[in-house]
Amino acid sequence: MTAIVDIRDLTKTYGSGHQALKGVSLQIAQGEILALLGPNGAGKTTMISVICGITNPTSGTVTVAGHDIIRDFRAARATIGLVPQEVALEPFANVADTVAYTRGLFGKAPAPDRIEAILRNLSLWDKRNAQVNELSGGMKRRVLIAKALSHEPRVLFLDEPTAGVDVELRKDMWRIVGELREGGVTIILTTHYIEEAEAIADRVGVINHGQLLLVEDKATLMARMGRKEMLIELQEPVSALPEALSGYSLERNGAGDVLTYAYDSQAARTGITRLLSDLNAAGLNVRDVQTRQSSLEEIFVGLVKEDA
């Protein structure tokens, strides 16, 4: 893997003594989408802030597109686009000027066609002459995204980009993420909307208490750590399970007509055949059987609980 972002033994300790990052190492490939998951205070935003030069690391190294973020800050930062959590915009500037100004800050020549394309893609073109303070919260979030894309970054950080925004913007955001990825842009996002990470990420990282618990291909992670469940619908409800079935750790729903059996799909023996036989022997007639895979959210919650 050719890493466009290379993080080695990164630590960050604040003056209060709080250690926000504890020896984080991570390599991110060009053109991939990495979802970074973790509870509030886990270290997600601190890591992004260090990479983007907003705060200095205590120790460790980070390179972006081969540029060290300390020794070659300007070159490294020029490759990065950042959509922060906080909406901080000049209230009396108009939308088009705000986006064009950010492009100029990175030393890029004026490109009206490029700015127009970005604004149109984010449904901001009709608002190009409006002052920022006239916009809704969702529209201001779109302006932040436009600013981050204005200088054509190779790496895009999205720090909780769709938190508190409307469904339409969320859909637009993920459409744009897909288009950028097709163009070779590397995307790192933090999100509390785990279903979105599950839908679009190539790899998933889980961070907690400043430590990177794992980084793994999303499909591999779900296959390795996600359990499967078999839902067994009975023809007649039962008030209690027969003693002969006690070894299966079955869960009975409130109505007593659905039993849940958890098993490891990777195991040599799942126990399903024997369970179905024992159900029949116990006089429980099966109406229907369904299976489901654990979601990424369930896996994430389990990992964080283990690390607590």
Automatic annotation (TrEMBL):
- The residue stretches assigned to a coiled coil in this entry are none
Q: Does the keyword 4Fe-4S apply?
A: no
Checking InterPro entries in the record gives: AAA+_ATPase (IPR003593), ABC_transporter-like_ATP-bd (IPR003439), ABC_transporter-like_CS (IPR017871), ABC_transporter_ATP-binding (IPR050763), P-loop_NTPase (IPR027417)
Per the UniProt record, the source organism is Halovulum marinum
Question: What Pfam families does this protein's entry cite?
Answer: ABC_tran (PF00005)
Membrane-crossing residues? none
Provide the ABC transporter domain boundaries: 5-234
The protein's name: ATP-binding cassette domain-containing protein
Upper lineage? Bacteria, Pseudomonadati, Pseudomonadota, Alphaproteobacteria, Rhodobacterales
